[in-house]
Amino acid sequence: MGITSLVIKQKEFTTRFRGFDVQEVDYFLEDVAKEFDDLTHSIQSLQEENHRINLENQGYKKRENSMKNAMVQSQKVLDQMKENAKKSSQLIIANAEVKAEKILNRTHKRLSQLHSDIIELKRQRIQLEMQISAVLESHSKMLEMTKEENKVADETDSTLKFIKQA
Fold first, then answer.
1. How many other C-beta atoms are found inside a 10 Å radius of the C-beta of residue 28?
2. How is the chain split into domains, by residue range?
3. CB-CB contact of 14 with 20 (8 Å)
4. H or E element: which one contains 104?
5. Which residues of the chain have pLDDT under 50?
6. d(CA 80, CA 86)
7. pLDDT score, position 69
């Protein structure tokens, strides 16, 4: 029986010669006490869970504040890095212009050397392609020979099994 405040208010006890039925009142009071004990335990559990959730929430708020502070610090560092990068880039551009003249002179000399190197590398590539092709062909022939040997071995194994069974 679920006991509510309405049930308690509307509960009528039968009267006897000397008043209410004591046993009926005792049973009802036991039910009320049990129901209230259950409710008390439920309230206590909910209060404990609420306390736990509040502590957890405080932890999240602390982490949120830490993250906000970290983001603000990161933004400051990022802004400083941008400013440093601008200054560095201006310095690099100035140095690059000076070096560009030197590089142009060396580039023309290097260009003729690279042209010669490219011709040599093409020759080596053709040679390597021929060698790789020969190795692949050799391995392919070896695989075919191995397949044939395995086929003969399988046939021999089948014959031996047939002989053993007989």
1. 18
2. 5-119
3. yes
4. helix 22-165
5. none
6. 10
7. 95
